[in-house]
Amino acid sequence: MNFSKLFEETRPILISSSPHITLYVKQEITALGFEVMSEGFTTVETQGTFDDAIRFNIQLRTGNHVYFLVEKLLASSVEELYAGIRKIEWEEILIEDGYFSVHSVTDHPEIQNTMFLNLRIKDAVADRFQEVRNKRPDSGSEKNRSVIFVYWKSNEALVYIDTSGDPLTKHGYRKISLRAPLQESLAAAMVMSTRWDKKGAFVNPMCGSGTLAIEAALMACDKSPGLIRDNFGFMHVKGYNPETFRTIQKQAEEKIAATIPCKIIAGDIDHEALRAARTNAENAGVDHLIEFIKSDFQNTPIPDHVGVVMFNPPYGERLGATDQLENTYAQIGDFLKKNCRGYWGYVFTANPMLAKKIGLKAKRKIDFYNGQLKCKLLEYELYEGSKKRDRELA
To answer: Under CATH, which number does the domain 184-223+255-393 receive?
Structure first.
């Protein structure tokens, strides 16, 4: 293979995500005009150029990492993998006086700890540089510059450039966090999973640091989350062209709408939570699109017509906290029934016992993970009147 042409070729691109989020990654990839070649539980594969990988980093809301394939290797042992990686022309890929790190995932009987594997991969790259250039880049564990990712299973190893570096789960605007904040990519997937059409209202009581409302605002004005970040892995390899990156940025910026047709409301009774939410929204450049209200959730104003109301209440992980939250969940149910008729209601929780206190039958139960916690986004259809009365009036 001619590695000097690597960044000009169409290559497999692997996009990782958190569990249960690949559906939304697929939706995003398809909307951008790319074909999904294959998918796993936490990965989606497509094809594209290095410039396309840059576009994914800028535009994807629900991905974790964007991996650009360098080489497929046959390797039945660590030493065979070392030899194969050493043959790759890394001098055509990495910057000689730069810095690189290695991350790997393996399902191989020879490896019990990937730290050893990562060291051998680093050795292979460094030894290649020493052989052909008589010098080598620095290396370490930081993921904020050049990152090599290797997936090794059975006798096949896939060697990638991690074009993201730091994970895309962090969209870069949240400078102030409160209790157990949602990852930005998870919040985006949650909003995408609802029936919100970006025309009706989006109401987020108990907003905390504002992640759900901010992600909704970014979608409503079509602002790509990668525009907020200032560092990616793709910036630290030889294929990076700052002018190309700026062109891709400009194309994304031109899509941003100055105004939106819907109302987005974020409310919280806690002053510090609202301050954090406002600050984070300012960092994201969408504070002018969100109405922040200091209010108990039961007094959150609900605009006329239709829309979505989304709650992310505490789950009661701490011992004894569940009893205190039973009343809160019951009040959420009352609020949805009495104040939100005609809307779709959503409650995100990891506690099925507390969910029963809402007192409504969920139309859908959408699976997610929040960190290691298995969660469900419960969807409620909030009728204008009872079904019985609707039938009588029909």
So the answer is: 3.40.50.150
